[in-house]
């Protein structure tokens, strides 16, 4: 059975912009999916419909058969707590400590009042330290988040998502603000953790070589439509040129080896 | 080679449009007209000011401080500071929820935000001295109406100032917390408060400074504190006591202001 199911998902923003023109996809449990396309193709919109940060104007997104699109209030928050997300700009609370940022990943699971007061159970604190260990920065727990390098901040972002103990991980251009070696290190971490925990992972990328290197499956988007869906081997240069609507550009489309 | 056409090159950017110039002239005309009307109706004149200056010099000589009044001054002075302190604390506690209800990124929904903002606007449009004057007869003259009047002031001003800060916080962490499944209160605690805490503290200190000065004045209308004593000295022509009081208040307010300015400079 498919883990994440998109049924004819369409998104029209208030400005009238149609960002997604009817996406129908099935993503099996544990798959590592990379979505490629130019900026404005609808990649960010597509992954944000999975945790309902963007609400589809038509169609439905379901996880394990339960609709995220129709969920409201507490039920929606419960579903979101099972979906980790990392961002291009990391989205950490810069003035807070690394540990506090990671503990924020428990906010969807912990009792609301305990969460507001910051009274996390000991097991949650232990889990947060454990997540920092897994992304390789256990010694940074008590420093302020904005003192870290970009790569370290993104690892805190991953640790925060891991603290949710999610079954789904979303990553919106997670390496676009990082240099090439750091980009590869972060993606390797992400892939390794996804394998170890069997997390279904959906990553937006625009670098062709990275997409081919890490993806189990590549989905190509152009103008709000899914125009390619296949394995990394099937995603030839010709396919990418069709997705991007132009010849491949070494500068813009390739990130290079680590 | 491209030669710019002189006609089009000069025409556009040099002169402001006719409407802009009209607005400019009419603005100055309105300012001048209001000035003339105000001078005439208030009877403002430099001759009156000059006469007053002579009286002032005479008055000022009599203000030579009578330091035997000091023991009388301490208790109401401390009461004044306590009024300002309590009002700052109560006002901050009551204002905190309003801050977030009045900010478009942390409110419950648009109608709630509009109601919260309207309440703040109404509360702020009434001066604190007027609150004190209305409340003193209702709550019986004394420190209580002073505390209530300045609490209302603190709440309204703090919520207004801080909600602008809240609306300008980095939205990224809020999106991340929303994605985690955190509700509104948890988003405020984890995403907003760490971003605004320094500014919020600075505003609270600044409002405390204002409250100290205001609590001296509101005593004049029966709201407790040193203003009561000030009123008494004035009505009994006790200029020696008045002189001592003014000097003491000046230095205490100066000390609190400097302390607060220093503390605020250490934040952020």
Give a short summary of the structure.
By secondary structure, chain A is α/β, with parallel strands linked by helices.
Describe the structure.
The complex is a heterodimer of chains A (258) and B (268). Chain A is α/β, with parallel strands linked by helices and 258 residues long. Chain A has helices at 43-48, 73-80, 98-103, 112-117, 122-134, 150-162, 180-197, 208-214, 237-244, 250-253; strands at 2-12, 18-28, 32-36, 58-63, 66-67, 83-87, 168-172, 200-204, 217-222, 225-230. A 6-stranded mixed β-sheet of chain A has the order 6-7-8-3-9-10. In chain A, a hairpin with a 2-residue loop joins strand 4 (58-63) and strand 5 (66-67). In chain A, helix 5 (122-134) packs across helix 6 (150-162). Chain A starts with a strand and ends in a 5-residue tail after the last helix. The mean pLDDT of chain A is 92. With 268 residues, chain B is mainly alpha-helical. Helix content of chain B is 81%, strand content 0%. Chain B has helices at residues 6-11, 18-42, 46-62, 70-101, 110-125, 128-139, 143-167, 171-180, 184-218, 226-235, 239-266. In chain B, helix 6 packs antiparallel against helix 7. Chain B is globular. At the A-B interface, helix 2, strand 6 and helix 4 of A face helix 8 and helix 9 of B.
Main features:
heterodimer; A: 258 residues; alpha/beta; Rossmann fold; six-stranded mixed β-sheet; four-stranded antiparallel β-sheet; 10 helices; B: 268 residues; mainly alpha; MetI-like fold; 2 domains; 11 helices
